[in-house]
Amino acid sequence: MAGVSACIKYSMFTFNFLFWLCGILILALAIWVRVSNDSQAIFGSEDAGSSSYVAVDILIAVGAIIMILGFLGCCGAIRESRCMLLLFFIGLLLILLLQVATGILGAVFKSKSDRIVNETLYENTKLLSATGESEKQFQEAIIVFQEEFKCCGLVNGAADWGNNFQHYPELCACVDNQRPCQSYNGKQVYKETCISFIKDFLAKNLIIVIGIAFGVAVIEILGLVFSMVLYCQIGNK
């Protein structure tokens, strides 16, 4: 019985140590994105809204919470502290319930979220023809996207760029004969707009996020089982 208890104890410690490392990794990556100059091209546009960094800030909070829970789990396992194990169990259970609630809300309001994405993309179309410094950062990000996916503009093609179309010599230049092209201001540009590619890009990444969330949920359930078994065994000593 003692051998089984020790096995559960050190399995719990190993699990929580890895959980703690995951928290550090999430926190470090989120902070890097938050302060990186490169990320300003994507998130830095003031006209894109004040909530550009909301997702990053949530990741920072999640990383910090996972670090704290991992610490509680490690200490609770090594010190055989029922109090720490109980706090770890409650915290992990709340996170799991929050994930389930988020998934349910995401499924229920999927149509609304699609509408919000459409409205955001249509609203950001005006940034392509603007001349401010913050808008240029957004424009550079779209230019990179256009070159990668061989599209032009967000909604109305090259016309979305307005007078800025003349400021970028290689903008939307149609260099792939296998993609449909059209003439605009005496220049061959890609005919397809980028809005559909952006939606596909978001959808593919959403699938990846769902897969990661499912994997994390499985790990959290294992953590709940390990912590409760160890909690009960410590109480029976």
UniProtKB/TrEMBL annotation:
Keyword Cell membrane assigned: yes
Alphabetical GO biological process terms: regulation of gene expression; spermatogenesis
CDD domains the UniProt entry points to: TM4SF3_like_LEL
Membrane-topology annotation of the record: Multi-pass membrane protein
GO cellular component: cell surface; plasma membrane
PROSITE patterns per record: TM4_1 (PS00421)
Highest taxon, organism lineage: Eukaryota
Key words, A-Z: Cell membrane, Disulfide bond, Glycoprotein, Membrane, Transmembrane, Transmembrane helix
Cystine connections: 152-172
Major subcellular site: membrane
Matching Pfam families: Tetraspanin
Localization of this protein: Cell membrane; Membrane
Segments traversing the membrane: 12-33, 53-78, 85-109, 206-231
Xref: InterPro entries: Tetraspanin/Peripherin, Tetraspanin_animals, Tetraspanin_CS, Tetraspanin_EC2_sf
Quaternary structure, from the entry: Forms homooligomers. Interacts with MEP1B. Interacts with integrin alpha3/ITGA3. Interacts with RICTOR and MTOR. Interacts with ADAM17. Interacts with ECE1.
Family membership: Belongs to the tetraspanin (TM4SF) family.
Alphabetized PANTHER family for the sequence: TETRASPANIN, TETRASPANIN-8
Name assigned to this protein: Tetraspanin
Annotated organism of origin: Gorilla gorilla gorilla
Encoding gene (name): TSPAN8
